[in-house]
Every structure is written in C-alpha cells, then in structure tokens.
DNA sequence: GATGAATGAGCCTTCATTCAT
DNA sequence: GATGAATGAAGGCTCATTCAT
C-alpha cells in the first residue's frame, strides 16, 4: 500500500516537473532555460529534479513523448477507412478538430514540438519528424482508400498530397496555439482546409 | 585601387565566413556550434571571425537576412495581379518553383531558417515569422485580386487560405531541402500544390 | 538550526574567499589576478566563487566596502568635538593610531585601497575618494571646533588643512603597510604628524 | 641632412604618440585603453605604434620616465642648502610651486603617475616609489642642513618628516590636477603647507 | 527522499602583438 | 615606412550534473 501511495507520489512529482518544464521551456526556450528555472517554478531544489529525470534532455524527451502520444491518438481513434467523400470530409474535420484542440488547450506545446524540438539535436528532430511522417502515412492511407473506392481522384502523388494536408493541419495548429483564435476561428481554419482538400482531391 | 581590392577581399572573407557558418550551423545546430568551429572549417584563427562579424549572433543574423532577402525576391519579382485562373496558376507555379530552387541549391538554409532560427531568441523567430507573414500577405493579395476579378470563389477567408498555401509551399521547400528530391519530384510537389489550390479555390 | 549552520557556513565561505582575494589581488594586482587564482588559493573550483559573489568585480567591491567601513569606524568612534589643544592632540593620536593599526594588521589592504582601487574603474576610485573626502570633512569639522574655541588659529583654510592632515595620516598608513615598521616606528610616525599639525595649527 | 630630418620626424612621431597615449591612458585608464585607441586618436594605423615603441607597456614607461624626469628637475634646480628658516621657507615654496605647475599644465599626468602607474606592475610602481623616495631624500637633506645650522629643531625623525612633507606636496598636486583650482587656490595650498612645515619644524 | 553546495567543461570574446603587403 | 589583417593566449562566466548531508 505504501508502495502504491509512493508510486502515485512519484508519478505526481514527475507530472509536476513536466508541467513546470513545459512552462519554462516554452517561455524561455530549451537552451535558455535552466534546470534551476524548472525547480524554482516548483519551489523545489534543483537537485531533486534529477531524482525524477536523468537529465535536462530527458525531461524534454518526456514532454515530447507525451505530446506525440497524444497526437498519435488522433489518428489511432479513427476508423481505418471511409466509404464516401462526405465520410472522408467528416473524418478530416474530426482529425483537424482533435489536433487543434490539443494545442488550443495547451498552446505552449506548439512551441515545444514545432520550434524547440527542432533545434535540440538530431534525435529530437527525428522524433517529431517521424511522428509527422507517420501521421502523413495515415493520411496517405486514407487517401489510397478513397482512390481505391473511387471517391478521390487517382492521378495524385498520394504521399505528397498527404504531406501537404498534414502541413496545412499543422499550420492551423501553430496559428491557433500562437494566436488568440477563438472557437469560430477554429471552425474557419477547418473549413478552409476542407475546401482545399476536397476541392483539390475529389474525383471529377 | 588598393581600397577596392581590399573591399573585395573583405567581402570575400565575409562571404567565406558566412558559408562556413551555414555549414557549421546547419550541421551542428546554432547552439552546439562554436565560433571556433567556423574558424576551423576555414582554417583561420577564431579571433579573425570577430574582425568581420560582431559576434556569433551577428553571423547568424547575416545568414538569415541574406536568405530572407533572397526569399523576398520571389514575390517582389511577381506582377501584383493576374487576370485569369490560368494566369494565377502560372504565377503560383513560378513562385513555388522559385522558392524551391533556393533551397534546392543550398538545402542547409532550410534548417537554418525553419529550425535553428526558431529557437535562438525572440528576435530571430520574429524575423522569420515576419517574412512568412509578409509572404502570406502577398498571397492573400493575389487572392483578393482573383476574387475581385471573379476567377476565385468569394466565400473564403483570404488570410487563412493564403497562410495555408504558404504552409504548403514551405512544406514542399523543407522536404526538398531535407530529402534528395530531384527535378521530377519538384515538378510533382508543384503539381500537387496547384491541384489543392486551384481545386480548392476556383470559382464554380 | 540547519539554516543557522548553513548561514554560518556561507558567511565563512564568503569570508574565506574574501581573504584569498585580498591575498591574490594584493600580490598580483586586480587586473593580473584571475578568479581562478582565488579559487586555486582556496583549493576550490572556480565556479564555486560565483556562488558567493556575482563576479570578480563584486569580490573587489566587498573587500573595499569592508575596509572602508572599518576605516569609517575610526572617526565615528570619536567625540565630535574637543575642548583644548591637548584634547585635540590626543584625538589626533587616537585617530592616527587606529588607522595605522588597521593596516598594520593587514598590510595587503593598503595596496588594495590605495593602489588597485584607483585603477579599476571610475566607481571604485570614487568610492575611495569619497571615503577620503568624508574623513577629511570630519577632520575639518574638528578644526573648525578648535578655531571656534580659540585653541587653533583662525587664519587657515580649514578644508585644505584637513586634507593635508589626512594625506599625512594616509601616507604614514601606506608606509607602515608597505614597510616593516614596528611599534616604535608607529609611535614616531604619530609623533611627527602631531608635530606638524600642532606646530602648524596652534594659535599663538 | 635627410637623416637629421628623419630623426626629427621620428622624434615628433614618438612625441605625438606619447601625447595621445597620455590622453587615452588618463581618460580610460591603462588597462581599459587599447593600443588601437591611441592610434585612432592620432589617425594612424595601430601597427605603426609598434615602429616607435616596443609595446604598450613601453609607451607607458616613456610617459612615466618623461614625467619623473620633469619632476626630478624640481629639486635638481634647487641649491643644496639654505641658511635660514626664511630661506628654507622660500625654497619650500619654490619646490611646491614648481611641482604644482607641472600638473596644473597637464593634469592628466596626475592620474597616470599617481593612480595608473601604481597598478600596472611591480616595476612601474617601484619607479614612482623610487622617485618619491629620492624626492623625500632631498627634502630630508634640506632638513638635516637646517638642523645642522640650527634653524630647524633637532628632535625629529628627518626621514619621516621629509616623507610627510612630500606627501603633503603630492596631495596638493593631485588636488590641483583633479580639481579646477585656480592660481589663488594654488597659493593657498602652498601657504597651508608652509604653515604646517614651518610651524611644525622650526626651532624654538 | 530532498537538497543545494561544489564542480569544471566549455564557450564567447578581447586585444596586444606580429608581419606580409 | 605605414598599415591593418590575422592570430591565439587568456580569462570571465554559465550551468548541467553529482553527491554528501
């Protein structure tokens, strides 16, 4: 029992550190932020941090992993295929909405994933790139399904198209995280993306 | 005469340092790269660097400024308006091609502009963001023209649409810089973007 | 309790660093001395120094402030006025003796206050100059009292006379700190100063 | 002939550099001043300086040597002995006046001799100290003469008294150089010093 | 378990000096 | 003779990480 309580406490501490680190990394940037800044934000000794994370880099990893897992959920919750253009449109809307919601809830994550992670080291960048690639692969998969079923046009480079759609979604995500876009704006971002995708991809 | 020769030499040295810095910054990242690395790459003393640039940050600024100027040329060389959907399509193609060419010629610049610059400090990030915003404004302007002339649909958020187009172009640019895409791939990227834009925006 | 012990330790460390810095600054000079020299003298890492003082200059400031405070005590412990030439003579003796004792105990301080401080920057110099000025003002004040009470001659420039007395005391101080003067020498220095002052200032 | 002209030119250049160095060293301080600052002040290349002086330290040496020589003149022009208290008083006045004039003409020298020189290295400090000692020895010599001839009291430490007189003169010199004392002030400084010395030393 | 004192690798930057032109 | 480009020693300072308490 004590063990369980202890485990919960540990988990809580790890979580608290992560939250503080998100705040610190997103406001000062990974390189300018010090481990001591994170500890200060929590009112704990900075040595304590090292009892929960191997090092500064490890904290960032944890943030990133958690965020990427959250983002991965977006596609994993989707049915692997749709049966009509309208179905696909709705799926696209759900995915975009879901993705935007993550960053609307915690806009600081956008800076961490899209800016800081890209300049720490090869591994961090690869980690994000890999997620984006996987996301794009899902998208490509949806499109292949649409082509196979005939509701999307065949003469496209599915991979590239998927990457462009992904880029549009990510762009909207960044803008929503960065700016002060409200719910109506989010609807518009989705609407504009849908226009491009449906208009650009639909068969005939 | 001596003065002219000297000025040329100085310009050459500044250029050499910039090139070495591009290599070093893009391969190790701004933060991990030292001024000494740049000097070593050139086989000169690191003190010499400071005769040509105020400090490490100043070198990065120069790289960024040069690159953004090059990118700004892309839209500044374009006519401010087009008269038909086909004209617009061609303009879009030119812009995308031009932009991709810059990074195809020196792919290292992509990492510098899109990754490193975002994590150095507020100023560097703002500098890139501002360029992107201006670029998107040009795009928005082209679209307003199309709406006014009736060859683009009126029911769009011009600003958002412009930003999404910009995001697609930048995405293609990054991919071309990062990957080993050849001329054919570049054609395809353009083609896919055109499909999205024309399909998604055209009237009727 | 732990806190108190900690505070004591911190105070001790600050004191140790100050002592080492006095040694290093007085033997090599402020400019030639490195923070690493101070750390080496203590057998500690140089980074440790920065936990106790903001920077090299701050260490010097602390030494100087401490010394000037000690010197300020000399006059602040004196009664503001005396009633006879003999009283005044005795006061002068006390002041000179007190001042000389400070530097006899730690001769290295003389170099720091009178030589190094003068060449670090405007602020350090002003700091010493200000102290000297205040000291001279006290002296001038004592003299005005003597003139008012009639035991010192009226036809003098009190400010200048005070500055000259101060200069004599400081000169003796420097000589005592620099040389290997013993107790007897100190008595003589005092005696000679008294001769000048009493002989030069006494009324009638 | 060409040689003579050349020698004159060289001498002129050395002199110009010295003057510029006096300005630069006295305004920024020896350590903060760069060789380039001196060259800039003259509008010449900083490499040129090294054709006239071995190094930065050598320039300072030259300034100091020149100044000390000038100061040495003050006592060397004096008769080795005087025959009455009044003669001695007049000699003292001449010496003080002469010394003050040097620094009134070029107040920048005060900072160089009394402040900067003390913190460069052992040699520079020794150089100034040696001059002061020699100056004090002359003064002591004058006093021994006075004691021998009976117009100065015998019960004094001639060396210390001489050093105190020297200190007073140097103090007045510094004040005159630092402040904006006019001719009348200079007279007063002399007057106050005389009062101390004559009052403090005269026999009976 | 928590703490924060200690550490030193590492990096930017300055500037006196040299020397090829 | 004059120049200023090049150099690299030198040093101040930061901060991630360790570990004794």
How much helix is in the residues of chain A?
A: over 70%
Question: Biggest interface and which pair forms it?
Answer: A-B, 38 and 38 residues
Average predicted confidence as pLDDT of chain A: 91
Biggest sheet overview of chain A: none
CATH fold description of the largest domain in chain A: Tetracycline Repressor, domain 2
> What CATH first level of the largest domain in chain A would be assigned?
Mainly Alpha
Count of discrete alpha- or pi-helical segments spanning 4 or more residues of chain A: 9
How many structural units, i.e. domains of chain A?
2
| C-alpha geometry of chain A | elongated
β-sheet strand percentage of chain A: under 5%
* DSSP strand count of chain A: 0
CATH superfamily of the largest domain in chain A: Tetracycline Repressor, domain 2
Order of helices and strands of chain A: HHHHHHHHH
Oligomer: homotetramer
Keywords (chains A, B, C, D): DNA-binding, Transcription, Transcription regulation
InterPro entries (chains A, B, C, D): Homeodomain-like_sf, HTH-type_TetR-like_transc_reg, HTH_TetR, Tet_transcr_reg_TetR-rel_C_sf, Tscrpt_reg_YsiA_C
Organism (chains A, B, C, D): Thalassolituus marinus
Protein name (chains A, B, C, D): TetR/AcrR family transcriptional regulator
């Amino acid at each position: 029992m004590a063990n369980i309580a202890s485990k919960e406490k540990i988990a809580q501490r790890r979580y608290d550190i992560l939250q503080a680190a998100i705040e610190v990394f997103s406001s000062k940037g990974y390189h300018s932020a010090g481990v001591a800044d994170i500890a200060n934000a929590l009112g704990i000794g900075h040595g304590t941090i090292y009892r929960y994370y191997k090092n500064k880099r490890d904290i960032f990893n944890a943030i990133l992993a958690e965020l990427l897992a959250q983002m991965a959920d977006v596609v994993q919750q989707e049915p692997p295929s749709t049966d009509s253009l309208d179905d696909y449109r709705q799926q696209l809307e759900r995915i975009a909405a879901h993705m935007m919601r993550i960053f609307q809830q915690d806009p600081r994550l956008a800076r961490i994933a899209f800016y800081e992670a890209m300049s720490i080291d090869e591994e961090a960048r690869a980690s994000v790139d890999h997620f984006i690639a996987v996301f794009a692969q899902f998208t490509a998969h949806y499109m292949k399904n649409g082509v196979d079923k005939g509701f999307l046009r065949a003469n496209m480079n599915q991979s590239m198209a998927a990457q462009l759609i992904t880029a549009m979604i990510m762009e909207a995500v960044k803008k929503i995280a960065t700016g002060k876009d409200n719910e109506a704006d989010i609807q518009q971002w989705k609407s504009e993306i849908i226009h491009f995708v449906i208009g650009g991809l639909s068969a005939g």
